[in-house]
Model the fold of this input.
Amino acid sequence: MNPASQLQQEQAALSRLVEKLRQEQALLADATPEGLTEVISEKATIVADMATLAGNRHALLGQLGYSEDEAGMQKWMNEHGSETDREHWAALFELAQDAKELNRVNGLLIGKKISLNQSALTILQGKTGAGNFYGPDGQNSISASGRRLGVV
Done:
């Protein structure tokens, strides 16, 4: 029973997630909604796969008497892990940091898009301090003060 036996699969799944996060970021930065739903769906599938792999590893650690978490894995790795196992474990942590940062930036981009959309909706709904731009007849309802140009 080796809790490191699926680290390579976890690493591959996390690499796919990082790639999807980069695709998502490009779509968000370019304001290209086409393809975003597909990327989000693919991300969810990858995350589910990763959760299954990590769950299997945690359960195996528990069976071996270690805590069922990353600290338990690190302890097992220090006591029993091969050099290859340690390399995969380190690469997994490095990829996790990349994914965390990409996810953080994507969250900021999404927040900015939501803010811009909310501002646009506010203007379209006429909730600005200036009132509605157009009346029910479709004509400009903002009146200018002062005299009109060309009128004496």
Notes: The mean pLDDT is 87. The chain is about 70% helix and 0% strand.
